[in-house]
Amino acid sequence: MNVEQLVNAIGALESTDALQCKLTLDEWKTLAPYLSMRFLKEGDPLMREGECERELFILADGELKVSILGNTIATLVAGTVVGEGTFFSGAPRSATVTPSGPGVAWGLNWDKFNAMTNKHPKLAVDLVSSLAAVLAIRMREAILVGNFT
């Protein structure tokens, strides 16, 4: 899997909380060295509730189940961002995220993000703006349904 497949997954997602990142393929290729590709296995959690690892993921292929206290609250598909809350806040993760089958996710950890920010500030701002929009939409949806867990 290459970064072009990630860009295609992001572009194909038609969700209210889709990453509306306007980066070009060449800009994604510039950012690719700061990302780590993770191959997902069914049932092997990508992240666990309570962890404090400052890394977010963009799902390039597959499907993820999001659960809180063992109860599935959402299903995420390719092109979706996950883990952005802990990435920015450093607070413990609020949910466990588990692949429903094989897949691929691209991760960005806080240290690599800082390095990227220093070397490519405009691209970092564009990415952060898109991630902030995802956070705002998800916060609004959580408020509307009363899901404050």
Automatic annotation (TrEMBL):
It comes from the Bacteria. Pfam families: cNMP_binding. CDD domains: CAP_ED. Residues 19-116 form the Cyclic nucleotide-binding domain. Gene3D superfamilies: Jelly Rolls (2.60.120.10). SMART domains: cNMP (SM00100). InterPro entries: cNMP-bd_dom, cNMP-bd_dom_sf, RmlC-like_jellyroll. This is Cyclic nucleotide-binding domain-containing protein.
